[in-house]
Amino acid sequence: MKEIVVDPFTIDEEINIGYQYDHKATKIVFSGLEDNNYYLKLQDTQSYQAFPIPNNEFEITNTYTQKTLITGQIYRKIDNELIAHGKIFKMSLKTSIPQSNKIKEIVPPAFKNEYDRMVDTTNEINKKLISGEFNGENGKDGKDYEHSEEFEKLSKDIEKNALNSANNASSALTNANKAKEYLDSVVNKTNTFNSDYTNKVNSFNEDYNSKVDAFNSNVEDANAALDAKIEKANTDLDKKMADANTSLDTKISEANNTIDTKVTEATEQASKAKQEADRAVLAMDAKLDKNQGAENAGKTMVVDADGNIVPGSALPDNVYTQEEVNALLQDKMDILYSGITITQDININYTLDGDLKINSIMGNTIQEENPTPENPSEIMGVTELNVKTVGKNLFNREYASNLDNWTRVPSGYAVLPIRVPQGVYLTTSGPSMPISAGYYSLFSWHPVEGTKYSYSWLYHNTQGTTYKTFTRQTDNFIYLYVSAPKISAFLEDFKNLQIELGDTATEYQPYMESSVVYNLEKPLFSIGNIADTINLETLTRVNNIYKEDLTALTINSTDNAGNYNHVNTTNRFYNLNKFSITKSSASDRNIYSSILPYIAYVWSRDETGITINAHNQAHVCLPNALLGINENDSSEERKIKLDSYIKSLKGSGNEYIYYALEEPAVEQLEFGLVEMLKQLKTFNPCTNIIVDGDVKPIVNAQYPKDILAVVEALEKKVLNLQEATIKNV
Questions:
Q1: What does the alpha-carbon distance between residue 108 and residue 272 come to, in Å, rounded to a whole number?
Q2: Using CA atoms, how far apart are residues 543 and 526, in angstroms rounded to an integer?
Q3: Where does this protein have coiled-coil stretches (predicted)?
Q4: Sheet holding 336-342: strands in order across?
Q5: Of the candidates 329, 501, 571, 438, which has an alpha carbon nearest to the alpha carbon of residue 73?
Q6: Of 79, 106, 133, at which residue does a domain stop?
């Protein structure tokens, strides 16, 4: 047996099977296939079939002298669908074609010609027999011709032909009658149509003039309405532009006042420092060594922290340099910043290349489940600031080039998760790739079963490139699938791939990003609309939420305790160490506990919970069964059992409560955080902001806005409105 090894992904030449007189059969071994789930599709001019290839091998047997050219391609079965893998190749055979696990023989031309000759000869003899020209042994001129086998066969053929002729004649008559009936119906329908057509034309002509008059009248009215709408749109646009200019002038004026103040302050400080330096020189001239070394050039003599006179600077550290003043002035004069509150991933249009200025960061509190003493639920705040800004293009090719970021799935694909912000549409664009690149790629919303839950093909080996707009189905991720062995080839071919928000593909832009990841020393919490806040304008952290150890609080007296003893629960109150803020209504949450749900007016309800009352006390209500209380226990015994349970929580992690302070605690910001937040950038023409973390903060920021782009968009919108108005007329 002859063996041929073929790589279906790289093959370019024709496979020549040739004659097989010596080896009787040929085995084709396909290399580079991962498992046994592949099929070989073969096609000649007569058939097209797929054959399983166990062990990735295919045998061809039986040879003939006829040479045949067959087209073949490897397919992989994925979710009961055959998907093409590898290139289309050709096999030159002097053999037969397998079909349904058997051999479909190909008749050589020599055999075919001989068969045709025999058929022609037989037909010629039959023709002569019918015409009476046949002169065989028992033919027309032979003996006893009418009783011969030849004559009997001829009689039967003539009888059969006559019967066929009669049948054909009858059939022809029937068909002729049907044709006449059909033609008659066509004539009737034509006459009816002509009559209806004439009536409708006359009716249209009568109504036409009246409709023309009405149309002319409507056009005049519509033109008047259109002129009014256009005039109003122009007036509104002029007003918006005037308001924008007024707002811009106000901001510039405020910026100039701020800058003038800073410049004046810096100038006065510099002047005072110079006067002080001059005085020091005069006073110390006789006492100091005037040669302090070239390394101290430009410095003055100052008194250090130990009282020694040394070279140094008399200016404070926070004095603005001239370069900083110029930069601040340029920033305020040329760029209009717009405010935004960021609570989740977001896309901002009309941004310029510049800085994302963070004004404040507010805390947030999440408790995933309603807590009970038996099933505590953790109270989680913001523990890290994880903010990333990304330009228009969401495909990070550098990230994709790291193969560790891809995951192999059973279907033979490698999968790359791509984070995308909140948005309705995603549009893909990039280079146009020819077919037969040897791999497949698609977008999906499923991390494993991409071929089943697919947005669209990105590249198909037999169809080429497909760029589409699709709606994101699930979370903030889409998944890129690529044939596992071909990631590097894919990245080289699709080096200009772009994924962007919106329903229209725009000009390619490389991936750009800036990011901040910072672990906070203390979490940021919130209760209702009150939150711990990092203020970047005052460089302070305002702690509005207080964490209290419930086991360290003093339980109140048993006064009026009878009102707090219920059938199923017992409740008492604990005096808080800090003053809590007064809630705006009874339904507003004012406290968190990891073992007790918040319940307003819990003291009047026979159920487990916690709240803060009007006397600055934590009111705790627990089930009697948990406390070991029975109906015969006194109020004092109930209080003792409840307090004993609370004290038993010490060290469990469930002893803490969180509530809002009436007077928040203020502290200075960590220096590292302030510097790090300056790294966040914005990009033109749009910026995607991605916020990560188990608990996401609320970020108040400003971004540089492209006013010209906004005005252009507004003008385009007005133009579209005018066009729509005209069309409606």
A1: 112
A2: 10
A3: 205-283
A4: 336-342, 698-705, 357-362, 533-535, 540-549, 656-668, 591-593
A5: 438
A6: 106
If you count them, how many residues does the chain have? 729
Please give the radius of gyration of the chain, using alpha carbons only, rounded to the nearest integer.
46
CA quadruple 341, 345, 351, 354: dihedral sign? positive
Neighbours of 617 (CB within 10 A): 18
Q: 4-44 pLDDT, tens per residue?
A: 888 888 887 788 776 554 456 778 888 888 778 888 888 76
Q: What is the rounded CA–CA span in Å between residue 670 and residue 241?
A: 42
pLDDT at 21: 47
Closest CA to 473 of 504, 446, 445: 445
Mark whether 652 and 561 lie in a shared domain.
Answer: yes
Contact 461, 435 (CB under 8 A): yes
Phi/psi for 430 (5° steps) reads 165, -160
CB 441 within 8 A of CB 459: yes
Q: For 207-261, how does the pLDDT look when each residue is reduced to its tens digit (9 = 90+)?
A: 656 665 665 666 566 667 666 766 776 676 667 666 666 766 676 666 566 666 6
Torsional class of 592: left (φ above 0), alpha (ψ -120 to 50), beta (otherwise): beta
- For tokens 């919303």, the residue is 445
Q: How far apart are CA 541 and CA 538, in angstroms?
A: 9
Tokens of 367: 């408790």
* Within a domain: 128: no
81 and 184, same domain (yes or no): no
- For all residues of the chain together, what is the average pLDDT? 79
Which pLDDT does position 154 carry in this prediction? Answer: 64
The answer to whether position 503 is within a domain reads yes
CATH of the domain at 11: 2.60.40
Instruction: Compute the distance between CA of residue 500 and CA of residue 393 in angstroms, rounded to an integer.
Output: 5
Which residues on neighbouring strands pair with residue 593, listed in sequence order?
Answer: 657
Pairing of strands 533-535, 425-429: unpaired
| Cα distance between residue 438 and residue 87, in whole Å | 7
φ/ψ of residue 41, rounded to 5: -95, 125
The single-letter DSSP state of residue 560 is T
Partners of 367 in the β-ladder: none
Task: State how far the Cα of 362 lies from the Cα of 272, in Å rounded to an integer.
Answer: 41
- Residues 6 or more apart whose CB falls under 8 angstroms from that of 517 comprise 384, 385, 386
Number of domains in the chain: 4
The Cα 637–Cα 60 span in angstroms is 95
Q: Name the pTM for this structure.
A: 0.56
Residue 125 vs residue 40, higher pLDDT: 40
Are residue 451 and residue 550 in the same domain, yes or no?
A: no
- Same-domain check for residues 177 and 270: yes
CA distance 263 to 257: 10
The domain of 13 spans: 2-106
Contact 455, 484 (CB under 8 A): no
> Residue 523: its pLDDT value, please?
97
Report the SS3 class of residue 376. coil
Q: Which residues contact 143 (CB under 8 A, 6 or more apart)?
A: none
Our CA dihedral for 470, 475, 477, 481, rounded to 10 degrees, sits at: -70
Q: Cis bond leading into 52, ω under 30°?
A: no
Contacts of 301 (CB under 8 A, 6+ apart): 277, 280, 281, 284, 288, 292, 309, 310, 311, 312
**How far apart are alpha carbons 524 and 537 in whole angstroms?**
18
Kindly give the residue spans of alpha helices, DSSP state H, lying in 352-501.
397-401, 487-493
Most confident of 84-98, 140-154, 445-459, 550-564: 445-459
